[in-house]
Design a protein that fits this description.
Blueprint lengths: L1 H8 L8 H8 L3 E6 L2 E14 L25 E6 L3 E7 L7 E12 L1 H8 L10 H8 L11 E2 L2 E4 L9 E4 L13 E4 L9
Antiparallel strand pairs: 1-2, 1-7, 2-5, 2-9, 3-4, 4-5, 6-7, 8-9
The protein binds a DNA duplex (13 and 13 nucleotides) through strand 3, strand 4 and helix 4.
DNA sequence: GAAAAGATCTTCT
DNA sequence: GAAGATCTTTTCC
């Protein structure tokens, strides 16, 4: 019991509703170790998803694909989008409840040159979209279910932006739940996918 | 077993 | 601004 409590306490800040977790993830840092190199990036755009939400992969309950989203907060959920792109989520909330936060855009901090090479695009388009983030950081399905406190993929809490620095809008690319405002990004940030 | 939709990105006009 | 690429997962018959 005590070991469970100590393990989860590191992620207490994500054991909350998906929207709160999403806002708290703005400003946090993703650290990825890839081919012996340390890449890092700051989260600047996110979207919240949970079990009660028709747009969420977990809306109809657990499946082999979305199982990781039902883990405890602080795990990774990676899925394949449109059969082509990988997308990274940070699992939020208590274990057994399918909620998480899609990482839509990041600002490269360490390893920008590597990210540019992996993407093959100009700086402005290197990580301004969920599929782009995963390509730049080399994240794929092998990392789904990975605990974000250990290499090669870690997450560290960052300085939380002030409320007036966060813009809230509807989410992108949805057909269901499209009118619910659950997308959050840093106001005026150049790496945000769309304004 | 088949069909449709999908938390996207790129290219072309 | 619009449409094509591309393929897995899930749902429905």
């Amino acid at each position: 019991v005590s070991s469970i409590a100590s393990t989860s306490s590191a992620w207490e800040w994500l054991v909350t509703d998906a929207e709160t977790a999403a806002r708290r993830l703005l400003g946090a840092t993703i650290v990825r170790e890839l081919d012996g190199e340390r890449l890092s990036a700051r989260i600047v755009e996110v979207e919240a998803y949970d079990q009660e939400d028709p747009a969420s992969h977990t809306f109809r309950g657990p499946t082999p694909r979305n199982a990781a989203m039902f883990l405890a907060a602080g795990h990774a959920y990676v899925y394949l989008s449109y059969g082509i792109h990988h997308c990274l989520n940070v699992v939020a909330g208590v274990a057994g409840h399918g909620s998480g936060v899609l990482i839509r855009a990041v600002e490269p901090v360490d390893g920008l040159e590597t990210m540019l090479a992996r993407r093959g695009t100009p700086r402005k388009q290197v990580t301004n979209g969920p599929g782009k983030v995963c390509q730049a950081l080399g994240i794929d399905l092998a990392l789904t279910g990975h605990p974000l406190e250990q290499p090669p993929l870690r997450l560290s809490r960052g300085p939380e932006p002030a409320d007036d620095e966060i813009v809230t809008t509807t989410r992108i690319g949805l057909t269901k739940g499209a009118d619910t405002p659950r997308r959050f990004y840093l106001a005026g940030h150049p790496d945000v996918s769309r304004r």
